[in-house]
Amino acid sequence: MGTYKSINVEPTYDGRLYLAQFCINTITWFFLTWFPTYLIEAKGMSILQVGIAASIPGIAGFCGGLIGGYWSDWLMRRGNTLTFARKTPIILGLICSSSIILANYVTSEVIVIFVLAVAFFSKGLGSLGWSVIGDTSPKEMVGLSGGIFNMIGNISGIVTPLVIGFILKTTGSFNGALMYVGALGFLGAMSYLFIVGEIKRVEIT
């Protein structure tokens, strides 16, 4: 007769990462859903202008993602701890992503796109959550950890358009929507700063 062996898992960091992933993806989903509408309704751009302008933050985010990954690896090669190498780009990137709120206070189309590009670049800089999941998940549960992590990100994809839609319906302005997105970016940074502890591999015993 077979014996049942219980599995004890050291308190994992995966759960501590979920809040930050939700926050990071909030920024992403704003740009994927409401961003063109924002440029048209709040900033008075034409559809043709939006087609060009909307690509600029995306390019900036692409560059930010590459630079954030390279910077993290460079910090590791310089002899820094894994925790420092991963957290530094993430925290600084997410704090800077909250600069999206500044778009509420500028009228120039060029400056608006610049502010949004900086915010999305910063979000890309801090998008190292999948690296941290790979660094911390038990080797026997990497697939499950990654699946749950991805699920949390997709929940943000459901919540973000609904919340922004509610804010628009209630206030008639995108100002609150940008404040919501910026606040979530800052919250993600604080979660890495105060909730996520040392980044290390969790072992199953």
Overview of this protein structure:
By secondary structure, this protein is an all-alpha fold. The protein has one domain: MFS general substrate transporter like domains (Growth Hormone, Chain: A, Up-down Bundle), CATH 1.20.1250. 72% of the residues lie in helices and 0% in strands. The protein is built from nine helices and no strands. The protein is globular.
Task: Give a quick precis of the structure.
This protein is mostly helical and 205 residues long. The chain has 9 helices and no strands. It has one domain (14-194): Growth Hormone, Chain: A (Up-down Bundle), CATH 1.20.1250.20.
Secondary-structure element order, N to C: HHHHHHHHH
Number of helices: 9
CATH class, named Mainly Alpha
Q: Write out the CATH superfamily name.
A: MFS general substrate transporter like domains
The rounded distance between the terminal residues' Cα atoms is 23 Å
CATH topology: Growth Hormone, Chain: A
Secondary-structure content class: mainly alpha
Mean pLDDT: 89
Ranges where pLDDT stays below 50 over 5 or more residues in a row are 1-13
Alpha carbon gyration radius: 19 Å
Compute the number of structural domains. 1
Assess the beta-strand content as a share of residues: under 5%
Binned, the helix content reads over 70%
Number of DSSP E strands: 0
The CATH architecture can be named as Up-down Bundle
Name a few traits of the molecule.
mainly alpha; 205 residues; Growth Hormone, Chain: A; 9 helices
